[in-house]
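queue> pop job 88
queue> type: inverse folding (structure -> sequence)
queue> payload:
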């Protein structure tokens, strides 16, 4: 029952790796989706966000206005800290529920937590393996401009708001380089799956 943390900076190709591992049979728990789940209309988390930052953070239908919230907290460390204090505990509870559900259904499951903010928020959790998707900052900035329509200034700001490449690489058990052809990234993901399969096999043997 290996629990894997998959992390990487914005536009690092992390989602490509997660999709490849899912094709092999991994159970993917997407931290971004968990965040959206705990911020649904009527949730305690959404109410707390509105209390902390104002009802202007809500759309007319009662859903979170993500663009308004991002504009409110981006570049303001104190506001980011307040937001994280609201959201992170709920995300931790819900993600753990999903881990437990996956392992309850299949003790030999490989569960991959696709989590952008591992270094910032979840590093101390008991991961069996930390996988970092890595491309240099200049490559990721180019992707943000070309593929997501950001300006160069916006791309630089988004990248600089995250931990440095050095810090992220320092926590890695496995690094998947994503600055080359897609086929190279997928081949590295395939190699990782083989490694995880061996880990599952070893643990299955210990249970016998």
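queue> result:
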């Amino acid at each position: 029952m290996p629990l894997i943390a998959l992390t990487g900076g914005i536009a690092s190709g992390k989602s490509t790796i997660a999709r490849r591992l899912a094709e092999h049979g991994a159970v993917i728990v997407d931290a971004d989706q968990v965040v959206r789940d705990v911020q649904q209309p009527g949730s305690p988390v959404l109410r707390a966000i509105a209390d902390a930052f104002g009802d202007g953070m809500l759309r007319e239908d009662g859903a979170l206005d993500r663009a308004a919230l991002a504009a409110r907290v981006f570049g303001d460390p104190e506001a980011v800290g307040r937001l994280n204090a609201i959201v992170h505990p709920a995300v931790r509870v819900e993600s753990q529920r999903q881990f437990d559900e996956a392992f309850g259904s299949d003790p030999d499951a490989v569960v991959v937590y696709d989590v952008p903010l591992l270094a910032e928020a979840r590093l101390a959790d008991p991961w069996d393996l930390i996988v970092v998707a890595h491309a240099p900052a200049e490559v990721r900035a180019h992707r943000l401009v070309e593929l997501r329509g950001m300006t160069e200034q916006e791309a630089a700001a988004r990248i600089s708001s995250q931990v440095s490449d050095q810090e992220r690489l320092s926590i890695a058990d496995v690094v998947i380089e994503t600055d080359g052809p897609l086929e190279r990234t997928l081949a590295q993901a395939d190699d990782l799956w083989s490694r995880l399969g061996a880990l599952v096999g070893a643990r299955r043997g210990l249970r016998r």
